[in-house]
Design brief:
Helix content is about 20%, strand content about 25%. The chain is α+β, with helices and mostly antiparallel strands.
Length: about 250
């Protein structure tokens, strides 16, 4: 597991797409878990303070003690941590903006079987900014070409699948989103560009260090399959700091 930052209180890793953060009885046959892998790698227990969906890659921060975990969890709950994601979406996103669109909680049939299904929608706010667009000479659907955008996303709140659902609300679903997205586009991306993953990556995490009080900025480079799409779309120089891992893998 690629370590992005580590000191005596914290560790941040670059979570690969397809990995669960921790063991779950809902995925009894899964064998790859970030928490257990990092624990074995560094030889000590780790504590989660936030999560990334299984198909999402990028910065995952963990505490090395329960006390630090509580402090970090409070920062996340109070929205004092700035999270920056990047995504490849369907169509041209030509202007930035803010999505202020409340979301009803998504319940799992098994894990949430005792939860109240009649809860009202909760406030959800996301900021988005286009970085690049491309039109590829590949027919997917009813058009002779396919259009994509690279966007920067900054969630202000932390609802389940918030960024994925907000981009669908804008009619620009994230490529590879099998739960909310465009299945035809997902298949087209896999067939023509060799990428079948969710194109959502947690690129940056900015926070105040819970012990020394200093600003901390952690970045996660893209994985090989993501970089392959960037190269095919001619976007390899849009965010070069994410294309090429730092030599020491650490940014403080």
């Amino acid at each position: 597991m690629k370590v992005l930052y580590q000191d005596e209180h914290l560790i941040a890793v670059n979570k690969p797409s397809g990995w669960l953060v921790h063991r779950s009885w809902l995925d009894r046959h899964e064998t790859k878990f970030v928490m257990q892998t990092v624990r074995d790698q560094i030889g000590q227990h780790v504590f989660t303070v936030h999560r990334l969906d299984r198909p999402t890659s990028g910065v995952l921060l963990m505490a090395l003690s329960s006390e630090v975990a509580r402090t970090l969890s409070q920062q996340f709950e109070l929205h004092q941590v700035q999270k920056t994601y990047h995504a490849v979406v369907r169509g041209y996103v030509l202007e930035g903006g803010t999505v202020d669109y409340a979301l009803t909680e998504e319940l799992d049939k098994l894990a949430d079987k005792h939860a109240n299904p009649d809860k009202g929608p909760k406030t959800a706010v996301s900021h988005y900014q286009p970085l690049a667009t491309v039109e590829m000479p590949v027919a997917i659907g009813r058009y002779g070409t396919s259009r994509y955008s690279l966007v920067e996303l900054k969630p202000e709140t932390g609802r389940k699948h918030q960024l994925r659902r907000h981009m669908v609300h804008l009619r620009h679903p994230i490529i590879g989103d099998t739960a909310h997205g465009d299945l035809r586009q997902n298949r087209g991306m896999a067939e023509h560009f060799g990428c079948s993953r969710l194109m959502l990556h947690a690129s940056h995490l900015q926070l105040i260090h819970p012990v020394n009080g200093q600003p901390l900025h952690i970045s996660a480079p893209w994985e090989a399959d993501w970089q392959g799409v960037m190269s095919q779309f001619g976007w390899h120089d849009v965010l070069p700091e994410l294309e090429f891992p730092q030599a020491n893998g650490q940014d403080s």
